[in-house]
Write a structure and sequence with these properties.
Blueprint lengths: L1 H17 L3 H4 L5 E5 L4 E4 L1 H7 L1 H8 L9 E5 L4 H13 L4 H17 L3 H13 L6 H10 L3 H13 L1 H4 L3 H9 L1 H46 L6 E2 L14 H16 L9 H16 L11 H10 L6 H12 L20 H6 L1 E2 L1
The site of one zinc ion has 7 residues, from α14.
GO cellular component, one term: nucleus
Pathway: Protein modification; protein ubiquitination
GO molecular function: calmodulin binding; zinc ion binding
Length: 356
């Protein structure tokens, strides 16, 4: 007992020195903290209570024996971790070495005693020191201590280095003792994989919309001013005209138009390339804002047809139109495999509008 007292007094000098001149203004300690190693740490109830609502509750709850003095037990973690914890309550600081040695314990203490500043600090430092070796242990702790930032970081690391994590002692322990967490990790990995797939698909779709949007620009340009090999039927071909700024798309479109005009397989809506052309014309009409003065073939006819068929409007088509309208950049010509509408009867009228 005697020895403990001496230890505690020595410690208290050190403790208060850390708290930037506080020792001079602090009254006598009025509470003792007892650790697993039976170390008694003298402390000030006002400081403990101001930093931790849990300690505040313990300090101010009614005592059975008024004479017994205030004693708080913090057991189950190394003495030095408790010292580092109390030091943090006094100074709001933690040394690198303390974090290095007791980060896990400090996280648990900050959770149990509800000290959010320390919790954030621990989560950050532990997150920076994650490895495939310790990730399972830290993950378990992060879940227990409700530290979502750290939890997510652990999950991501476990998912991305699963082959290595699977070989660790921590993982084997987890499999034997915490099958729910094992399941949680596997589920997270699965979701991460499908998230990745979704993102890839969205990116691909976006590229398609951009390409379609460029094709729409080129179609209007071919039908109003004409390009290298195709132009409006009533305009003289100008051989001097050089390639336009979006020539890779424009050229593809011109080749498609030439095919469209000459394809022999007009029965049943024509071949796949013809159907693609139909779809581009229809798309133009869906987007066009000036059908009355528009030079693109079939623009008005498609608009009229769409008005007649308003009730059986195709939701997917509308979505496509919206997406193309919102697409900004533009690259090459290609079309998604969407349901294609046959517009057999207007085929020949379309061809007459071009000068090839
Ligand atoms: Zn062009
Ligand atoms: Zn064809
Ligand atoms: Zn138009």
């Amino acid at each position: 007992m005697e020895e403990n007292l001496i230890t505690s007094f020595r410690f208290s000098d050190d403790l208060y020195r850390n708290s930037s001149g506080m020792a001079r203004v602090l009254p006598e300690p009025d509470v003792h903290i007892i650790t697993s190693g039976a170390l008694r740490i003298p402390a000030h109830s006002s400081i403990l209570a101001s930093m931790s609502p849990v300690l505040e509750n313990i300090i101010y709850r009614p005592r059975k024996h008024r004479s017994s003095g205030r004693v708080i037990q913090i057991l189950g973690v190394p003495c030095d971790a408790v010292l580092a914890f109390i030091r943090f309550l006094y100074s709001s600081r933690c040394s690198e070495e303390e974090m290095q040695s007791y980060g896990i314990h400090l996280l648990a203490l900050s959770h149990v005693y509800s000290v959010p500043q320390l919790k954030r600090r621990c989560a950050k430092v532990l997150g920076e020191r994650l490895s495939t070796e310790n990730v399972v242990d830290v993950l378990q702790l992060a879940r227990m201590c409700d530290a979502p930032y750290l939890y997510l970081k652990c999950m991501k690391l476990a998912a991305s280095h699963f082959k290595a994590v699977e070989k660790t002692e921590g993982w084997r322990f987890l499999q034997d003792h915490d099958p729910w967490l094992e399941l949680e990790i596997l589920k997270f990995m699965d979701e991460a994989e499908s998230r990745k797939k979704r993102t890839r698909r969205r990116r691909e779709e976006q590229t398609t919309y951009l390409q379609l949007s460029e094709a729409m620009e080129c179609l209007e340009h071919i039908c109003t001013e004409g390009c290298t090999s195709v132009g409006p039927y009533d305009t003289e071909p100008t051989t001097k005209k050089g390639p336009c700024s979006k020539f890779s798309t424009c050229q593809g479109l011109q080749i498609l138009i030439r095919h469209f005009a000459t394809c022999k397989r007009r029965i049943n809506g024509g071949c796949l390339r013809c159907k693609r052309m139909w779809q581009l014309l229809r798309l133009h009409s869906s987007i066009c804002e000036q059908p009355d003065s528009c030079r693109v073939p079939l623009c008005r006819q498609f608009k009229l047809k769409m008005q007649q068929e308003k009730n059986k409007d195709d939701g997917r088509w509308k979505l496509l139109v919206r997406k193309v309208l919102s697409a900004k950049a533009i690259s090459t010509l290609s079309l998604p495999k969407r349901k294609r509408q046959e517009l057999e009867d207007t085929h020949s009228r379309g061809i007459r509008c071009f000068r090839l």
